[in-house]
Amino acid sequence: MKRFITNNISILGPFIGLIVFSIILGIFSDSFFTFDNLLNLLRQISVNALIAFGMTFVILTAGIDLSVGSILALGSALTAGLLTSGMDPILAIIIGLLIGFVLGAINGLVITKGKVAPFIATLATMTIYRGATLVYTDGRPITGLSDSFSFQMIGKGYVFGIPFPVILMLIAFAILYFILRKTVFGRQVYAIGGNEEAAILSGIKADRVKIWVYSITGMLSVLAGIILTSRLNSAQPTAGSSFELDAIAAVVIGGTSLMGGKGKIVGTLIGALIIGVIDNGLNLLNVSSFYQQIVKGGIILLAVLLDRRSK
Amino acid sequence: MMVTPLVEMVGVSKSFSGNQVLHNVQFEVKKGEIHALMGENGAGKSTLVKVLTGIHERDSGQIKVNGGEVHFTNPKQAEARGIVVIHQELNIIPHLTVSQNMFLGKELTYGRSGILNHRKMKALTEESLQKLGVTNISPDDIAGDLSVGKQQMIEIARALATNAELIIMDEPTAALTEREIASLFEVVTDLKRKGVAFVYISHRMEEIFQICDRITILRDGEYIGTENISDTSFEQVVKMMVGRELGERFPARKSKIGNIVFEVDNLSSKDGTFHNVSFTVKEGEILGVAGLMGAGRTEVMETIFGYRKKDSGSVKLNGKELKMRHPNDLINAGVGFITEDRKSKGLVLGSSIRENIALVNLKTVSQKGVISNKKERDLVENLIERLHVRTTGKEQEVKSLSGGNQQKVVIAKWLGINPKVLILDEPTRGVDIGAKKEIYSIINELTEHGVAIIMVSSELPEILGVSDRIMVLHEGSVTAFIDREDADQEIIMLAATGGN
């Protein structure tokens, strides 16, 4: 038990925070702790959580990815384009995910082979990918997408009463948790963030690992985008704007260090839940969305300040 | 008549969260003496200095400066009473000029205008450097472009500018070349004649016997004794430090030297730091690599290991040419590399001992990319035990280990790959004397199993005590190969400075 606590000390704070926020909202709002609302909440966070899972890998390598929102938009738009051209939805989705992978790989290549700081590299690609989306869509939403069951299922479906996006999120979580905890690749991600030079001198191909990390993040962003597209039944050229901030916030609230090398994906899930609980709860309480932003920012600050304290 | 000592510490104790670090320690420095403070890592030397200069508050005991009791609560107050510390990691801001560094935090201005009086600061910088007899530094030089030795001179000049009576130097020669050490010692002995006192903290016994007047020894936070250097011996000091006879400083070798396993042929670097380096190492042999700072020793090793780009040349293991695109190529072939700077290149400091040791052995402890907890635990625990790493457990962060134990973790991780060739770059830097001997024993044991060793070191006694053969580099070229029987310090120094 004691060992369990010391091993998980970094996510203890966020976890307690999540419980406290939930209880407070439960007291003020009768509808918060209803089964439907909680499922709804999980569905609401699934898009941000998927992106934040990828962002966790990126931040663990001491990087950052600002382009996730733009990749989401470009990947969704291209997938939507394929769908309207009558392509088989499953195939279109797979191609869409591959596009996300490639867009992420471009980030990784610029960062590793071009030796550009991740912040600058992804700031640039964020703008480029967004521009490409606007060019492709001509600035208009793409509508009239597939009526096929499989495409509609992704954003709107339920399995055993659980929203399909939530299932996707949990599957992604399980896989990524396993990768970080149990695989050589996961260990390499931590080592690169902890001390890249020592990692390289220990035989780790840091460039390759980083390119993979950005690629996975790109793919997860497009997955999140396809969920959104399916829900709205249209691809919006402005989709995903400022999503990078929510994703980074979830990672940071979850206790992952922006310096790299330290953090847990469980923390990110909790971080995304905290953001979701606040959004959801404040909506239930009819708090204006303007105030919501102030509260959210305050909580990010609080999380980081508490984290500093404990060190 | 008794002369009042400059600094007198009596019965000083200090503990951190229940852990007693100093226990009833006494320490005295007289005006104009050079006083060595020695002890193994963790003996309490740095804590004693921190208590003296007010970084830590003492729990009990008395500290007097020039006869008056003091209670410093920060280093500024100590500085005002003439006590200055020059840390191992120099307090120099690399992008600023020499004179900007000199006056950092106490810049001179025109009256109270807040406008900097550059001319006056430069003149005063020039003047204080001249007082030290240093003429090859200009106040306008960018500090980061200067050698470590020159940067240290800036720190000394800065200390003197505050009228320091006592300068405490922590491992001042660790990063200096032989020539820089000589000029540092000149400056120090000159200042001593002018009445400045020094506390000299170092692991380098030769230097202490060369320059110091008295020596105080701490062990496990306790005061062991103070001796006049002229009345004591090398062996006695070591015994006081470790509390037992350590025996031979360099354990006896009994490996059999076999065939050539490792060949470096005409290796040249891309950036021109070295050219046409060729050498061979045999099974069970230790090749010592000597040379001055900047001779290119580390660069040669990092290039061999695939960490830097080569221009031409090749590396062969057992007659087979190795690819050198990435350290991974060399590791797979069975070459290990213990880097010079363990903190920046050898360890992931924030990670556990387990994770650090596993890092080069991920392939061994995993199957199809999935790590086996059991295999990892077995490997790590086995290596921790084999190297006698003193730790609370394999989950301890390496950051919190002493220098010697950190180095053992670095060695442990490389032993995991069962290397055929092991390159060690300054394997005992910043390591205390007990751990040093353990490291030599490990190296010996490896040679007995036929491992070929390449050992770079700046400490000539170590090179002479450990190597079978010595290669000397000078400005990026090999200037000599010397067999152990024929080698002495002078022959090596001659080759290292470019003579024949």
From TrEMBL, chain A:
Membrane topology: Multi-pass membrane protein
Subcellular location(s) of the protein: Cell membrane
Membrane-traversing stretches: 12-29, 49-78, 90-110, 116-137, 158-180, 211-229, 265-284
InterPro entries: ABC_transp_permease
Keyword 4Fe-4S among record annotations: no
Xref: Pfam families: BPD_transp_2
GO molecular function, one term: transmembrane transporter activity
Leader sequence residues: none
Annotated keywords: Cell membrane, Membrane, Transmembrane, Transmembrane helix
Top-level division of the source organism's lineage: Bacteria
Main localization, broad class: membrane
Gene Ontology CC: plasma membrane
Protein's name in the database: Ribose ABC transporter permease
Source organism of the structure: Ornithinibacillus bavariensis
TrEMBL record, chain B:
Localization of this protein: Cell inner membrane; Cell membrane
Protein name, entry field: Ribose import ATP-binding protein RbsA
Keyword line: ATP-binding, Cell membrane, Membrane, Nucleotide-binding, Repeat, Sugar transport, Translocase, Transport
Bilayer topology term: Peripheral membrane protein
Superkingdom of this protein's organism: Bacteria
GO annotation, cellular component aspect: plasma membrane
GO BP terms in the entry: monosaccharide transmembrane transport
Record-annotated ABC transporter domain positions: 7-245, 255-500
Gene3D superfamilies: P-loop containing nucleotide triphosphate hydrolases
GO molecular function terms listed in the Swiss-Prot or TrEMBL record: ATP binding; ATP hydrolysis activity
Classification via InterPro entries: AAA+_ATPase (IPR003593), ABC_carbohydrate_import_ATPase (IPR050107), ABC_transporter-like_ATP-bd (IPR003439), ABC_transporter-like_CS (IPR017871), P-loop_NTPase (IPR027417)
Organism of origin: Ornithinibacillus bavariensis
CDD domains in UniProt: ABC_Carb_Monos_I, ABC_Carb_Monos_II
